[in-house]
Amino acid sequence: MNFKGNDISDATLDAYTDSLAHRGPGSRGVWREKKRALSLGHRRLAIFDLSDMGRQPMTYLDGRYTITFNGEIFNFHELKEELAKLGYKFRSTCDTEVILAAYAQWGEDCLYKFNGSFAFGIWDNVKKVLWLARDHFGIKPFHYVMTDDSFAFASEMKAFLQLPEFKLKFDEAIVAETIANVNGLEATEHTLLHGVKRLPGGYCMTVTPEGNTHIRQWWNTYEQMPKDMPKSEEEQVERFRYLLRDACHLRLRSDLPIVATLSGGLDSSTVASMTASILQEEGSQGHFERAYTASFPGTNQEETQYARDVAGKYNLPLSVREIDFPQDINSIVDKIIWYHEDIYWVLAMGPWLVYEDIVKGKGAGMVVLDGSGGDELAVGHYFMLYDELNSAVLSGKWRRVRELQEILFKMRGGSVDDMPISTVYAVRRALLNSRFGQNVLLPQLSKLTNIPPRSFLRHQPVKDKLFYQYQFKKPHDYSALQHTQYIWTHFMGMPTVDRMYDRAPAANTISLRAPLLDYRLLTYSMALPDTMKVSRGYTKYIIRQAMKGLMPENVRLRTNKVGFTSPMNEWLAGPLNGWLKETINDQDFQASSIWNGPAIRTYVEQSEAAGKWDNISKLWPIFNAFHAMRLFHQGGLRY
């Protein structure tokens, strides 16, 4: 949208739209309103109604409303029936048209009707306003650029490189802060690129042709938590199981084939087992084609046997992809970094290669069920237990302290063997996280930090733009565990992982669905007592109880933790070693104004000589940032 009336050229609109062809290879469409200097483009991955009736941009009610929409509304059948009774007519069998009718009927309150993952823009030709919205938790991405003259939005930042007026420049302060706090970026309005903003999850905004904007938060989980919670444990488990089953059932709606990723961990096993049991009951198992897993033999990431056990229970075909590196390592690493766009803790090679396997030989378009969100849903990360541990120490609840230490100890044996669990550590951490620690001790200690990668930044982050855990004030009626769960769901872990689980599938023409991110499940879980999430020797207690009888016991009751990570120590010592040396010796890497290149090279050489690969792998966010910046400056991939 141009506020001066200077519409972009057809060639620019085409280039802008097609820069994201990987997200929608099936078809493309553009729509122009030259009088208002407004243009919408769309690349479609058809999931509902594969005919041309579902093409976008789509108009509705004699051209009053026009939409470009990324995502899925899983309950659109029910909404369509409700709207039809109110007199609305439909030409297609897809969810896009239902969004338009819902907006026509309920206005912006239609968002509360949607159960799905979505980001969209709707032009109202009567009110002359562009309305844009993002789903409850930011599962689907939304970026925008706003200047005095124009407004542009897109699913990925790389699209803006096609706009002649866009000047590529990295925000070095944000890059540095993200290196130090990878999980702090995604839930904010900030991005790595100067001038590019993010609409956070649960927000919507309006833009007028005159350049007036308004942004508001439409979704607040705290305000939406159910008040009529079941009283007994049995009733609480039954209600959770019902919501989980319905979340999986809704996500089986598709005009494309459906498969699942199955790591063998509790979360993906929950989704695969519940889905398979539903289809088994309905006698339609053929709708669920197979499951895919990544194998990391000889590392602490290996979970293949658990995946085999789950698949075997339901006679579900299982494809195992042993994760290795192709001969052209630089090519695959560049591809992963380019399509992910942002900075992460590790190279997400495993999921990428599994997604490639899923679509291999099948043409464009697959629906994949996934277990992401389980750690936030039911408190599964080991570090989510530390605030509860702090609280127990400070309040003298030593029985709870010992219980949490036991749970943390049992989580070892996977990818988190080095977690500290001693009472001395718990007391020290509790002191640092007290009001005195936050106001007096930490500001002084932060000046003395020697922890990589932060210690190699030329300018220490000022903590004023990205999210940091203690910026969110604990509601008076929240426990320490609820507080942590809320933070990691809305501001830290889950938004970051959601980003990773959007970009890689989208780059491989996959629609990823995560039943555990159903907003009904998350609001319900948030309201459950702490003992239904962490107690009796287990994290994710509610999931384990709800899945009794539906998955193998060795999977349901396993405690060792393998997170969304990669065996970076082994990779940097092995197949990535040459790539690592090229990176740290690159002239641009050495000359960076964000990090101290010479100091990093010395540190890597000394660590390698001492065999301390964990020291090197902690620097991955810096390596990631360097290559992301390089790829943007060269305009993308060259392979």
Question: How would you sum up this structure, described in words?
Answer:
This protein has 639 residues and is an alpha/beta fold. The chain folds into four domains: 10-219, Aminohydrolase, N-terminal nucleophile (Ntn) domain (Glutamine Phosphoribosylpyrophosphate, subunit 1, domain 1, 4-Layer Sandwich), CATH 3.60.20.10; 224-377 and 492-556, HUPs (Rossmann fold); 382-480, no CATH class; 568-633, no CATH class. 40% of the residues lie in helices and 14% in strands. The chain contains 26 helices and 16 strands. It has a six-stranded antiparallel beta sheet with strand order 3-4-5-6-10-11. The chain has a five-stranded parallel beta sheet with strand order 14-13-12-15-16. The chain has a three-stranded antiparallel beta sheet with strand order 8-7-9, with no helix packed on it. A hairpin with a 4-residue loop joins strand 1 (27-33) and strand 2 (38-44). The protein is globular, with a radius of gyration of 24 Å.
